[in-house]
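We store sequence, tokenised fold; for instance:
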Amino acid sequence: MITITNIKRVGSEKTESVTIEGGLIKGWNLPEEGDIIDGQGGTVAPALIELHAHLREPGQTEKEDLSSGLAAAAAGGYGTVVSMPNTSPVVDDPAIVRTLIEKAAGLGFARLRPAAALTKGQKGEELAELTYLKEAGAAMFTDDGRTNENARTLRLGLETAGSLGMVISVHAEDASLRADGVMNEGPVSEALGLPGNPAAAEAARVARDIEIVAGLHAQGVPARLHVQHLSTARALDLVRAAKAQGLPVTCEVCPHHLTLTDEALRSFDAIYKVAPPLRTQADADHLLEGLRDGSVDCLATDHAPHTRAEKERDLLDAPSGIAYIELAFPLMYTRFGETLGLERILDLMTAAPARVMGWAAPTLDAGQKADLVILDLTTERPVNPAEFRSKAKFTPWAGETLKGWPVLTVVDGKVAFQR
């Protein structure tokens, strides 16, 4: 049993305490029992939920592993993380799913809900054994890391996943339009002489996938499509239109597409190379409006660690990805706290991901699972990558002063992180 004292609920200035026992919230403002933890006057919220992170295990542990990745997630205030299956080997076998879950459960950090590959080997040709993968504990199906070029295979996957009550999430880019583009196609790529990835590559694929869902929906098939890391205004407008038609289509946006633009690539620093690429300020503004009006369903980080040596290659050869799960909430709160408000940001990172997945919304009510985070909303401190729990100890926001840092994360009633 633990009691966390000196905390405040969102929207209240009243100092309270919460007692946790047996992995559940026992109650509020009870007589203090067990281990007493000072919440330092912080604001308490349900632990964050991450639907899109690359933890690199199995087979790529020089970049990240379950221990470092889930410790980083807990330090970022996350209680649950959905990991992507583009590992070595690919997570397309029920035995791998079970192994990952069992290993993560013994670490004492954030909870792992692995995504499994939609197709065998993520080759886009033959569906993986979706039923068995669900039974093993897979949270969703996705070929993230690769685009689904075969529309028929995706359609069959949506039909099968729909019958299982599962979500399929997609990396929505047309590979032929993207070609060898390493950054957003536009004036900046032209000025730098770098191959561009046009906004049309994302929009064309989103349009195709929405049409597949529309056809299935008309037949009564309960297919659910989730568009990952949406980056362009045009693609968001397509999703917005699909929602207006009542189609079961959701989308996520990443903080890096809100806070960085293709102008950053003028440095020729591959730390800014991501897929889909950083777009224009107009795109970023449009995505922010989507967060405000509800067209964007949730926030996700696409935490994608690589070794420093890999990211020090030139822009043509370096891998895509930014790792920053530890500072996602402080970044959003510092940059957009006034624009979106604390409650909206928290919803986008807690209840909203749960809604996308069809999970019960997290609450802090007595009797509920004790997954919570204490946030220091006032103390400002600089981003210091050397302190990251992740193996990727570098970031575009190094040295930037942020507020909203997690000071305590509790998962299943146990302390997973304490600053």
